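Give me the fold.
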Amino acid sequence: MNKVLCSYYIGLNDKDTHKQEKTTQEALNIIEEIMDSAGIDSYTTSIVQGHYKRELENTIKLDIVGIALSEYYINLIKGRLNQECIMELCTETDCNFI
């Protein structure tokens, strides 16, 4: 069954201080709260490392199947984690829940 898979790469370095101000667990809790408020109850988070503007940072990868986050919820995450941007990557995929 064709569905959309959207991945969001959320860096954890603060856009102003260029260092991680919130712990990774605090950031995960914020994302969980926002997903709950959006009514999204199925998603996956992974902790990865990313580079943005030549800075290494801890990054949360958020994968959601079947729906893309609205700009409203993306902006909530950006605001709560003080991020300059979040990378969104959405692709069509064959996905089944078996």
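The first helix runs from residue 24 to 38.
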